[in-house]
Specification:
With 326 residues, the chain is α+β, with helices and mostly antiparallel strands. It has a single domain (11-317), classed as Oxidoreductase, molybdopterin-binding domain (Sulfite Oxidase, Chain A, domain 2, Alpha-Beta Complex), CATH 3.90.420.10. Helices cover 20% and strands 20% of the residues. It has twelve helices and 13 strands. The radius of gyration is 19 Å and the shape is globular. The chain starts with 10 loop residues before the first helix and ends in a 13-residue tail after the last helix. Bound molecules: ligand MTE.
Length: 326
């Protein structure tokens, strides 16, 4: 397996030795970070691609119409990697844990409640949500804060289409996404790494931006559980941790919401989390990334400002100090 080769930059250089030697006790104790898992995972001898990645090939089809405005020159990451190398801590911290364990998650029936600063709070069932707008296929780059990346064909429609249905009030300034909690089906919940449920958030203008996608499928099929079935968001100019999976609730708020990683390590993971090669993480550079599937000895790819979406989103942050608002 290509990805089981030792990394070019040993994890010991980017993560303190005590950390990668004892990742579990470290994270519980220091509560600090995503990369420790990625780094430690890379040192593992076994396959990083979960066996359930293969099982999920039986997922139903969900063909979106390719939207020419969102096709990019980068070659898409192999489907096996997209659905087999995941971060979904509800199922464990290893990269193959989600593919190995997420099949147990119940994704039907599923409802999504939208509440808070809205004129028309509403609970949608999944079928209604899937009929709300035509499904598009968009190919987005995904850049994880751990300095790896993928190129993923998602199926979905703009989150703005859904938010318009509930009529945000003039007080709605932020959005919070809450992920599902199913204690009997999610073995990772026993590790109190995160104060579950996983919560993430956006500023209202970010949530309404046409790039922000409500996602139901990947690679022309319904989302496999490990990728956040039955619905998640994709926000391609931000680090991947902003893209909450398996969402059950969206709250519109007049104040900045709590978010899971900012709660755990506020000095390492900010609310904005815009991809920015010039602002390093306190423990590693963000100037380049490892494209999953390229192999550890392939050259690293330079990280682009706003993950290559600057022409579309830079204006959202005019006048803002991006170093202070990391
Ligand atoms: N959402 C939930 N509920 N739980 C998680 O652990 N991990 C985040 C994000 N969404 C996470 C989550 C992180 S760190 C990343 S990089 C992306 O999901 C990974 O998405 P993928 O596994 O589909 O590539």
């Amino acid at each position: 397996m290509r990805d089981s080769k030792p990394p070019r930059i040993p994890a010991s250089q980017i993560t303190p030795e005590s950390v990668w030697r004892s990742r579990r006790s470290w994270l519980k104790g220091a509560g600090a970070g995503l990369l420790s898992w990625g780094g430690a995972g890379l040192l593992g001898s076994g396959s990083l691609i979960g066996s359930a990645a293969r099982a999920s090939q039986v997922q139903g089809r969900l063909a979106g119409t390719p939207n020419p405005a969102y096709q990019i020159p980068d070659a898409p990451t192999a489907e096996q990697d997209v659905i087999g190398y995941n971060n979904f801590y509800e199922f464990g911290t290893g990269k193959s844990d989600p593919a190995d364990h997420a099949a147990r998650m119940q994704t039907r029936p599923w409802t999504l409640t939208i509440e808070g600063e809205v004129e028309k709070p509403r609970t949608f069932d999944l079928d209604a949500l899937m009929k709300l707008a035509p499904m598009e296929e968009r190919i987005y780059r995904l850049r994880c804060v751990e300095a790896w990346s993928m190129v993923i064909p998602w199926e979905g429609y703009p989150l703005a289409t859904l938010l318009r249905q509930v009529q945000p009030t003039s007080k709605a300034k932020f959005v919070q996404f809450e992920s599902a909690v199913q204690p009997e089906n999610m073995p990772g919940l026993h590790d109190r790494i995160i104060d579950w449920p996983y919560v993430e958030g956006l500023r209202m203008d970010e949530a309404l931006h046409p790039l922000t996608l409500l996602v139901f499928g990947v690679y022309g099929k319904l989302l496999p559980n490990q990728n956040g079935a039955p619905l998640r968001v994709a926000i391609p100019w931000k680090y991947g941790f902003k893209s909450g999976k398996s969402i059950v609730r969206i709250r519109l708020l007049d104040h900045l919401p709590e978010t899971s990683w900012a709660r755990i390590a506020p000095h390492e993971y900010g609310f904005y989390a815009n991809v920015n090669p010039k602002v390093p993480h306190p423990r590693w550079s963000q100037a380049s990334e490892r494209r999953i599937g390229d192999g550890f000895f392939a050259p690293r790819v330079p990280t682009l400002m706003f993950n290559g979406y600057a022409d579309q989103v830079a204006s959202l942050y005019t006048g803002m100090d991006l170093r202070a608002n990391y």
